[in-house]
Amino acid sequence: MKFGALAAVMAVLVGVAACGQTSSGGGTTQEPPPTANLKPLDKVGPGEGQLNLIAWEGYTDDSWVKPFTRQTGCVVNAKYAGSSDEMVSLMKDGGGGQWDMVSASGDADLRLIYGGDVRPMNAGLIPDFSSFDPYFQTPPYNTINGIHYGISLQWGPNVLLYNTKKFPNPPTSWSAVYDPSNKGLVTAYDYPITIADGALYLSKSQPSLGIKDPYELTKKQFDATVALLTQQRQLINKYWALGSDEITLFKNNDVFLGAAWPYQTGQLKAAGAPVEETIPTEGATGWGDTWMLATKAPHPNCAYLWTQYVSTANIQAEQAIFYGETPVNTKACAQMEALQPGSCAQYHANASAQYFSQIKFWKTPIVTCDDGSKNCIPYDQWVSAWTTIKG
Questions:
Q1: Residue-wise over 138-157: b if at least 16 C-beta within 10 A, else e?
Q2: Which domain holds residue 98?
């Protein structure tokens, strides 16, 4: 997952801006990344005794890390990152010979891949890979020209969360977070990728703009989106960077409406807060996390052993419930129900194809549009625009 705080990653962004064409599914077709010709392992050998991970907080909980160490002898050392930008910075120079893997989100993956900081992985060495939802076997944010630059882990939608007492008539459109009548009631995620939320809304509310992909915006489309979010700034009571921040805002009745993750919904409901969530008619953005192997990983066998372990249905279920997210292993739903009845549906692990089709998953904005033209706005300009939007 992906927690707030901007950081400087401009060197990598320059490289990403030169990348090639993307596709909407089944992986990505682009210019070969710097590590494309590095051969992945063809078999997993004995563990090296250590594994150094850069991870989202909570992704290396002792409840599943300690059993892994007992099974493999790989002692896990984890550094929690506060943002995708921090992950990219820490992984510079292929992990520097220090880090083995990173649990990157889709807004960081292409930066890591085209920065040469992660290397191809052999999905054939992951026994549970065949049980993954087909989308997460080759998502466009981590699979390029059929080469896997990581193995998918968990995902989640960015839902519309609302207070049911303040909004007895449930909102059905993202227009609610842009409605002047809701001034002071609204919150939003404090991160440049939030620009995609505005673009997704405009793709439906202003079809004449021609937005097909909220991460591939021409200057005209981008300017319109920035204008929308600049107007929205007047409605925002406070932005949130951590899920816990938003939970506190809703508990204290500081905000009543805004984008959220299912984790916040679950925690607020457990605390008795009058909230519900929905996927509005326009759909929603979403995130997918990937364990990616550092180009200079010093412990590659432990890295593969870890990836095998966290891809199993039971560990995926444990992490999903612990963190409040959705496993990519389709067999994890039954395990979730055994651990916590109702959790499979709560985190949409049994979601229908119709539900899933509404989600536009994060990917790094790059200069090359889907049609091959070089007219799209790259991520560095998203970072600058977000600073301007917030004033």
A1: bbbbbbbeebbbbbbbbbbb
A2: 10-154+288-325
